[in-house]
Design a protein that fits this description.
By secondary structure, this protein is α/β, with parallel strands linked by helices. It folds into two domains: about 90 residues, no CATH class; about 280 residues, Rossmann fold. The chain is built from five helices and 24 strands. The strands form six sheets. A nine-stranded mixed beta sheet has the order 4-6-5-7-8-13-18-17-16, with helices on both faces. It has a four-stranded mixed beta sheet with strand order 1-24-23-20, with no helix packed on it. Strands 9-15-14 form a three-stranded antiparallel beta sheet, with no helix packed on it. The protein is globular. The N terminus and C terminus are likely disordered.
Amino acid sequence: MSNLPVWNQLSGYKLAELEERVTTTVNLPLDPSSADIITGFKPDDTALSSSPLPTLINSSDLSIEKTWTQTVNNVPNTSVTYTYPISIRIPTIPSLATKKVPVVIILHGNGGNGSAEITAWQNYLGDHIIIAPTGYSNSWNLANEESKAPDIEFLKDLIAKLKGFNNVDHSKIKFLGFSNGAGMVNRAFIEIDDPDIDSYVTIGKQLYDPQYRNDTFFFPSGQTGSSPAQYNTATIPLQNKRYLSIHSTDDGTIPYAGGVVSGNIGLTFLPVQESAFVIAKSQGYTGGQIPDGGGVFYGTNNTYYYSYLGGRVTHYKTQAGHTIATFMREIVQAFMTYVPSTAPDIYLEAGSSTAIQLNTSIISLISGKLPPGMRLEENQLVGTPFEVQRSETFEFVLRATNSSGSKGFGM
């Protein structure tokens, strides 16, 4: 064995040293589980130098820590460090086990928590990955809340983390919020410029001044507050979004007709139907606002809906108070529904060419077949890119030589 030629293995897959043949197993997509693997494969890189994308599971750690200053116990400029707890629910539907699945980020109301949102929504959004964080002081930072946490920054970081998992459909990230959480969903709609966010659902809170004024959307460049001095940066929301709002005419917390809400909220709200119309205009609608009498009867709780852009922006007017009734959850379920069989399979993502460097001259493919998208090119196995389903298996043997002699390389 001491006289064997030296083979430099550069692909990240450690080969056994045998007299006549070298064999190894590569799970496709290139996501090996062997303890001998030192480096893995990241689909959008051209080198086998990064760990393979992991699979998001219920016990994954998505926690994110943020530090900021605010008034605490009447002491201004107190430094606060908070780690956002994040509850996760992965679908249990067998047919989705090898699929990229849409994600819905659920933001609780004031005083709520993420774990309770999982329980409340899992029977309605069970075909989604549900992500439910808990805000600082069990609230989200809109204007005059106790929390002054950088929640938009947190949500951006959360989305970036989610995109690092192979079972997440990056193009189908959705937001859902109630009351204070709905207000944060509206902030996300306005402030997070991410084309991969697909849908927004708000229940029990509409746009407010100074967030929207003078036909313009604004966001705070620094600390939040209830005046234009805080909401001081004009912006234009991205288009090609879907938006659903549900609000009760008898809501005693956030009035359907809009106006000033005093106390710790301290904001002036737009009328709900005007708020929906404003959202529709931001998405390209050029017509007039649907009049109150123009709603279509939904069939329960004196509920009517107002649809813009073929349903891409829809408002439901109902009578159920400041709460989430069962029929509201069913409306949300219908709005977010999709056909599970159409979810994309977990493939290697398209990217630039990826090569497995063997440091030898490959002569021939002895037996078997290469996966689609993989080819032999001089001393490399090249993928352009691989489009191989995770559950498929390919077996093949290559014979190669180097300056010291001949060996076979089997996969």
